[in-house]
What we know:
Blueprint: H1 9-16, H2 22-34, H3 36-55, H4 60-68, H5 74-95, H6 103-120, H7 123-173, E1 177-178, E2 196-199, E3 210-214, E4 220-226, E5 234-240, E6 247-250, E7 257-259, E8 262-270, E9 277-287, E10 290-304
Amino acid sequence: MSGNAELDPQLLVRYLLGAASEEESARLDELSVTDEELAWRLRDAENDLLDAYARGDLSPDELRNFSAAYLASPARRHRAAFARALQNHQLGTAATEDPSRDTKRASSAKLSRTLVFRWLGSPAFAAVSMLLIAGATYLFVDNSRLRHQLQESERIQASLKAERARFETQLGTQQPHDIGSSLPSSKAVGALAVPSFFLRPSGRDAAGIPQLILPRGARNVRLSLKLEVNDFSRYQAMLLDPAGLHQLWRSAPGPAKTEGRERVFTFTVPGTMFAPGRYVFELNGLSTQSSPEPVGTFPFAVVVK
């Protein structure tokens, strides 16, 4: 993936179907935002995919991935429904033609009828008008839905700001406690080990914020953040200062995983990011159709021994 011109069109299809590798998906997530040419290519690939779906040309594996990954988004379900309705209209129009005519004669007759219908205000022209009205109605409904989503996102952002203020007060008044009994133990002891910790969203521990005890010189730290809901195919964690105002580090986008009975987002942070003190992880849900949405905050304290 050294250049956009070298991107395999099949890779774009796999990405849209959720079948690309984690590395490929992360790279395309970034390029779809920063590279306008790639964004247009991705949009063309999505249109071709919708046409293939409407015609029934997808293979069983592609259809299964299309249903599981692409149709998981309400906006994409609307696009798929619109593509299928357009295809059905085209098939209905083609079915009214006389099949006994050869291709050239049928094309000529169809063109003649179309020209006459345009002048006389024929039913075909009325059908096209109805299709345009349906499209305008869809856009109106979709815009209303997007406005509702924007209002909901603003409400969540306001709630998170209030929660961050509460965290700041809590961090200033409470003493951190050792939650080693509720966290998986480190894989080994020493600086070369990878300490592993499990964090729950804020508000789950009334006694105080969690405390992560790290061995001195640890190169990496593995974190698993518990998901209250699992509404996104990919997530990204950001390490913030205690007030939640400054971003110190962020993870690569990735999918959630299952650990034991919990659904978590797991990632590895360089040990050099952690000095003794207090921090906050903010977890965002990612979608190719909208901006990142916050799904949880995880305050904690670091102790180095």
